[in-house]
User: Which sequence fits this backbone?
């Protein structure tokens, strides 16, 4: 018996998250197009938590030996950048925060700024090269994204970091949890706690 369409889309999206480094929203849309022989109804689109379950199952099956090492390397790199940009209230989000990242995942750091231009000025003053673009790492329109590249010593390829510039007023809503009570993002102290916690 075939799995429900929503579950098949979630499984396809999970492969895209793990193998191509897509964020959940983009992976879900691309996976839904793969089943485009018929029109996919909104009710057939899986929730992010469902995709995350499929990602965790995929990692457990195929990447159990390597993914924890890659995740730690990315979280340590994210923490260095968060300390570098602490004046802009950085919060880690995406796969690196949720614990599902692999070496293909970009690091998403949301900056909650009184003036978004101040983050750009800070990067310029630090001599950091970056690319600026509209929000193209998720579900559509949103904040300005500054993209930089860096290296983690444990990984043999550059790591992409997307710095999402958000208004300070957005911070209250950003601290909401998912349907299971887990946060969608964490501040500098929360990332430090994750790195200090025993490996699971």
Assistant:
């Amino acid at each position: 018996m075939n799995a429900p369409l929503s579950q098949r889309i979630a499984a396809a999206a999970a492969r895209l998250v793990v193998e191509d480094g897509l964020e959940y929203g983009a992976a879900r849309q691309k996976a839904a197009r793969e089943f485009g022989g018929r029109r996919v109804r909104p009710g057939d689109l899986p929730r992010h938590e469902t995709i995350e379950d499929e990602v965790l199952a995929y990692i457990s099956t195929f990447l159990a030996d390597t993914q924890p090492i890659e995740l730690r390397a990315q979280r340590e790199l994210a923490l260095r950048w968060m300390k570098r940009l602490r004046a802009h209230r950085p919060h880690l989000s995406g796969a690196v925060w949720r614990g599902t990242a692999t070496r293909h995942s970009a690091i998403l750091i949301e900056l909650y700024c009184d003036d978004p231009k101040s983050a750009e000025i800070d990067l310029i003053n630090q001599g950091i090269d970056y690319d600026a673009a509209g929000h193209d790492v998720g579900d559509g329109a949103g904040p300005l994204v500054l993209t930089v590249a860096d290296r983690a010593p444990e990984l043999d390829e550059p790591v992409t970091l997307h710095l999402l510039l958000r208004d300070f007023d957005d911070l209250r809503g950003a601290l909401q949890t998912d349907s299971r009570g887990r946060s969608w993002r964490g501040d500098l102290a929360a990332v430090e706690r994750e790195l200090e916690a025993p490996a699971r």
